[in-house]
Amino acid sequence: MLKKIYRWLYRKSASVSSDAEYSSGPWQNAIRDKVLGLCGDIGSSRVVEIGCGRGFFLAELAGRNASADILGIDLNGKELAEARRRADDMGLTNINFA
Fold it and tell me: Which of 19, 29, 54, 97 could form a disulfide with 82 if both were Cys (CB 3.0 to 4.6 A apart)?
């Protein structure tokens, strides 16, 4: 049941951004922004996100913390390809995906 609720909420809130990127939606963007604010400057920390999907959060975190070593892990190869593309487009060298 929880999965059905999540999918319904996702469909209702997700949108396509101006650069044709499928966004997680405003509610997830707001949560991501709040968490990034709480993270602040993480210095040269090592960060792993399991279930990183398209890497929205990690790309933002890597961009704000150039000396951090960041790894995103996901089982979905298509999502990882998008995450890698995003990191490359942003010129991020401190982030890897597996």
Answer: 54
